[in-house]
Design brief:
The chain is α+β, with helices and mostly antiparallel strands. It is 16% helix and 25% strand. The longest helix has 10 residues, at 132-141. The termini are far apart.
Length: 398
């Protein structure tokens, strides 16, 4: 009798790849995100956006305020305080590197919580959605015997909104009777408006202008030079001062001990921060003239790199002048050496900056030709108006 051959021999004519061959083949696949068919429209002068890239973590219990005080760079005010609004802050690791940039809202002031008879302190932490579980694990690590309850808030239970009304400074009123919303004035930069957290899918009660997608809000944020999230403030690598968290009001240098305080305080009193995240504008290597002002172009056809890239001087070798972080269209954010890429003077030793200098970034995918773009950094006015540590130390006593 003729022996029956295994069926698998006749199922497919496609050659099988071993793991080594498959890995080699995979390396030739581009991992650069495809450019969108159309870029987002410029943000309106007044508007609001549901920040779908943010998540919330609830911290509740009688030890909540004391517990957070030992972990965050901002000063957690003592409970109770019915008129207290939220604030910007960050969590660091033991080496003083940024893990998460956050907003923290005392939620016990909300009528929603008061109606449920919560007599204990409770806070909502507004964090990058992709890393909410990572932050919860970090918080749980330091819980020990603290009487608190931690949980990641379910999607749709609470929503985070960004609202703005031109360049006017809007003040958050946390003492509005019967309000279920929690939030704060977004003091990271002038004109950033308010941060509002609403319950049950509602829109904020006090809004003006039109609703926009989160991408339009991010364009406004980038133009203001405000970094946010792990693509812009690299987790475990970025320093708080280099990420402008001090300029954006996220660090209280007078508070007591917290995780990562030592390096942060030392850097503050040294008074020299040589690199900072700045807004940048990209332009083609064929352009002979660099842009004079920072302006978003929704018709831009520039292809951006898929991740962080080093920035260097055009036609000159040397150490990196900075690092590209992320962007959209022809604008973005980059970590820049101030005395190389800008006219900022940090010491009396002189500066490497010259108005004739141009900068570029180059990148290449395997099997593809090298790509280049020129890049120019802009220093926001709210950076220049900040007093330096030396200025503060030289002020006469009252």
């Amino acid at each position: 009798m003729r022996r029956r051959l295994p069926t698998l021999m006749f199922q497919s004519a496609r050659p099988r790849l071993c793991k080594r061959c498959f890995a080699a083949r995979k390396r030739h696949i581009s991992t650069t995100p495809l450019r969108a068919l159309s870029l987002p429209s410029p943000p309106p002068s007044s508007g609001f956006a549901r920040l779908t890239n943010r998540a919330l973590i609830s911290v509740r219990g009688q030890d909540a305020a004391h517990y957070l005080q030992g972990l965050t760079t901002a000063n957690i005010k003592s409970f109770p305080s019915a008129s207290q609004s939220g604030f910007y802050s960050s969590f660091l690791n033991a080496q003083g590197r940024v893990l998460h940039d956050v907003f923290i809202y005392p939620s016990h002031q909300s009528a929603k919580f008061r109606g449920e008879a919560h007599e204990e302190p409770s806070f909502l932490i507004d964090v990058d959605k992709a890393h909410a579980d990572t932050l919860r694990a970090h918080l749980k690590r330091y819980k020990l015997r603290a009487k608190i309850v931690l949980r990641v808030v379910d999607p749709g239970e609470w929503d985070v909104w960004g609202t703005w009304d031109g360049d006017e400074a809007t003040v958050w009123d946390a003492a509005k009777p019967g309000s279920e919303d929690v939030g704060c004035t977004d003091n990271r930069a002038p004109g950033m408006g308010q941060r509002v957290v609403t319950h049950g899918g509602r829109k904020p009660t006090t809004i003006s202008g039109e609703e926009t997608p989160v991408e339009a809000y991010d364009i406004r944020r980038i133009l203001n030079g405000v970094p946010q999230g792990h693509f812009e403030i690299l987790s475990g690598d970025a320093l708080p001062q280099e990420s402008n968290i001090d300029y954006m009001g996220g660090i209280d240098f007078r508070k007591g001990c917290y995780v990562g305080q030592e390096l942060t305080i030392r850097t503050h009193h040294t008074g020299v921060v040589r690199k900072r995240i700045l807004p940048v504008q990209l332009y083609s290597v064929e352009d002979e003239k660099a842009p004079d002002t920072l302006q978003y172009d929704p018709q831009s056809s520039l292809q951006l790199p898929g991740g962080a890239q080093n920035i260097s001087r055009v036609n000159k070798r040397g150490r990196s002048a900075g690092k590209w972080l992320t962007g959209v269209g022809n604008i973005g954010l980059a970590l820049c050496r101030l005395e190389t890429m800008t006219d900022v003077r940090l010491t009396d030793e002189g500066s490497q900056w010259s108005p004739e200098n141009e900068f570029k970034m180059s990148w290449q995918l395997e099997g593809d030709e090298e790509r280049q773009l020129k890049i120019k950094a802009f220093v926001p006015e709210w950076h220049r108006n900040r007093p330096t540590v030396r200025d503060m130390h030289c002020q006469p006593n009252d």
